[in-house]
Amino acid sequence: MSQNTKTRITQNNAYKGKVAVHGKYIVWQDYRNANSSNPTNADIYLYDLSNKTEKMICTNSNYQDQPAVHSNYIVW
Description:
single chain; 6 strands
């Protein structure tokens, strides 16, 4: 993939933030499951650039924040 190529990695329009990238992995904090009873319910998602797939990493009802990725490890 060229450095100048733009690719949309998720079709969900919810707010996303605190993105981290390492190698073929992109992780981020995602608010798609937030609602009026839990508006700060951020979850952690991953996108694998090699196979173009998105995966839920943690969707616990508690707040997940500041993801980081290195090699095959994700922390938050």
